[in-house]
Amino acid sequence: GSSVPTTRSPGREQRTYDQIARLRAKAKRRAVDWQHQTTTELADTFAVIKVEKLSILNMTKSAKGTIEAPGKNVAQKAALNRSISGEAWGRTVTMLEYKSADRGGQVIKVPAPGTSQTCHRCGHRDPASRNGTVFACVNPACGWVGHADTNAAININNADGPAVSGRGDLGATRSVKRQPPRAA
Predict the structure, then answer these.
(1) 92 shares its domain with 138
(2) C-alpha of 167 from chain center
(3) Do residues 96 and 142 share a domain?
(4) 176 belongs to a structural domain
């Protein structure tokens, strides 16, 4: 005879749920701590910070659809929604805004449409230029190829408003470094 219990211990199940809750809380605290450290460094380093203005609520809408028109790729969309929510983009921007304001800086939200389909070098806009993570300008006079996120980030930086440069004055304006440079 085996001594396999016939009933579950209700306390064991509750302890397991409590352990899971503690692990999730710890992961969230680490993520929030990282957001605070990163946004503090950005606010201390730059007088102007440009971010893509995203409609997070629209991006995380359900793909379930209706009985008449059921959604497609519902499981993938649900996973993407969880991922977007888990990253807490809105909280990051909120932190950037209040920390920049406290330091006399500003956060500029640049409208997202077109930033990932427009070549930063020649200004040609074509959805065919973007293929996943690769941006290859279809303008024959240009032909720039690079990472799509890099291209979009340059477009956001070049959008209306003061140009943003880093520590080494890479842009049209002088960089603003509010702390002495760190020793390398």
Answers:
(1) no
(2) 22
(3) no
(4) no
pTM of the shown model:
0.60
How far from 34 is each of 30, 39, 95, 149, 160, CA to CA, in Å?
6, 8, 12, 22, 30
Contacts (Cβ under 8 Å, ≥6 apart) of 95: 35, 36, 39
- Asked, for residue 152, whether it belongs to a domain, the answer is yes
C-alpha dihedral sign at 106, 107, 110, 111: negative
Q: How far does Cα 119 stand from its chain's mean position?
A: 21
Same domain, 104 and 135: no
Asked whether residue 173 is domain-assigned, the answer is: no
Strand residue runs (E) in the chain: 48-53, 106-111, 130-131, 134-136, 145-147
Q: What is the pLDDT of residues 14-64, one digit of tens each?
A: 999 999 999 999 999 998 999 999 999 999 988 888 887 776 666 566 666
Number of domains in the chain: 2
Sign of CA dihedral 161, 162, 163, 165: negative
- On whether the CB atoms of residues 122 and 141 are closer than 8 A, the answer is yes
